Amino acid sequence: MLKGNILTTEGWIYGSVRFENGRVTALEGHIADPLVNDAPYILPGFIDLHVHGGGGRDIMEGGDAADTVTRQHAQHGTTSLLATTMTAPRDELMQVVAGLGEQARRRATDGARMLGVHLEGPYINPGKLGAQPDAAAVAVRDEVLKYLELAPIRVVTIAPEISGHLDIISDMASRGVRVQLGHSLGTYDDAVNALKHGARGFTHLFNAMSPLHHRDPGMVGAALAHAEYAELIPDLLHVHPGAIRAAMRAIPRLYVVTDSTSAAGMPDGEYRLGSQHVTKCMGGVRLADGTLAGSTLTMDQALRNLVSLGIPLADVSNRLSRFPADYLGLEDRGRIARGAWADLVVLDREHKLTATYVEGESIVEYA
What we know:
Keywords: Carbohydrate metabolism, Hydrolase, Metal-binding
Cofactor: a divalent metal cation
Active site: 259
CATH class: Alpha Beta
Binding site for Zn(2+): 120, 183, 204
CATH topology: TIM Barrel
CATH superfamily: Metal-dependent hydrolases
Family: Belongs to the metallo-dependent hydrolases superfamily. NagA family.
């Protein structure tokens, strides 16, 4: 049982949450403004749908790298995540995805739950790689279906302007895969057409996509005008606070991702991002040419960053937990409610993490 200011699906209550066998069994308390007391905040655990690495390990390494990554992010309040791949040659990527399929069937001790895989590439525009390796490919139905057989592919990033990709978007959407638009030189019309074919979101909004211009609104303009969901990296390096605010006003269920790399939780130095070598320095991760290459962000820091912009804690929590769960169609995660998984984080009054529970198991307890 935990006591404090609990953010429920109906709003804040002051009281207690009980859980047993990994599930919330009872909520007791009364409606209360958390600003009128000094009790801790109890929020749904964070759900990160775009994670490349952490703790010095990269998802593309295969082997036990994913276990290290899930443990590292659990230390920062992430209770479930999508292991996110990098663009790579077909055989290499198939091997990595197959390994992730095996790991998705279990949860590493003291780690976050891996909900599945976010396939970020290879179906992207070679003219908008960002930090992705130069191994972009055109999607072929049989190949895509093979990936779906190997692992629970929950999200796929795709450039819609590539010939044949609209049919792939429709096919994947019909199978329940969330298709996101990104790493794209597509026009506003390309993006709108992709949404009509079943695309649901946008990958790291503003980054690695055609920008907004008032006479050429591009991919960003389509997202702001039409999207219900999009992911965004609030490390305050990838996106200016003003752009974050604009996106929050325009996109009802804008949600937070870290796009974290193996450098997350590690000191400055040289690290791996897929086949690329990156440098962590001054809070960011970059390629040799200075291109931003993922981040070192953790979800608890993302929360503090958004709160520092004056965004209410309840709104921030929705963007770290409830909205990504809703995006994947998960009704028993991302919220504190009877019957939901007991994925919980406890924060002190300065919004610092003091405890994390993954499916009822205590992962983090700071003095």
